[in-house]
User: What shape does this take?
Amino acid sequence: MSSDFLSWAGFNLSRKLDTKKFQPVIVSPRPYFVFTPLLASTAVGTLEFRTTLESVRRRSSGVEFFQGWADDVNFDKKCLIVEESAIQRDDSAALTKDIDALKQISAKKGKVFEIGYDKLVVAVGCYSQTFGTKGVRENALFLKDVGDARKIRKRILNCELNTDLYLFAHQLILCRF
Assistant: This one.
C-alpha cells in the first residue's frame, strides 16, 4: 500500500489483511494516520490532538512500514519507487496543488529505493483545493492535519486575547472619564 497521505480506507485495509496470506507494507511520509473528521473538534479544544492520530507502526498490527514518498510505480518490474522522507518537509500542514511549492519540495531528494510487490493497493489521500482562487492558499486555514488544527486553535486564542485586551483598554478609558 502506498500513499503520500494514507487514506482511511487504506489504513483499515492494511490492518484487516490476513498476515498469514499477505505481507502488508505501507509507504507514507508520516508514521501516523489522521482521522480528519475529528480535527475540527481538536481545533476548538473539545478533543485533544492525540485523539485524532493512529500510529501506523503499532506492534500488533503486523504491517511493515517505510517512511517515504511513493514517487513512481514500475508495473513491468512490479516495484514501487520510494523516496526516503529523511528530509524534513512541512508535513504538518495541508498540501494544496501549488505547482511552485511542489517543485520546491521535489528539488530536495532523500535516498531513492525500490520495493517489490505481488499485489499493489494505491490508497492515497487528497489535496486541499483552492479552485484557483487568488489569495486562498496564503490566507485560508486548511484543516487536513494536526498542524492545521493547531494553527486554527492558535488563531482563535489570539483573536480572543486581542478582544479581551481591547475590552480591557476600552473599560480603562471609560473609567477615567
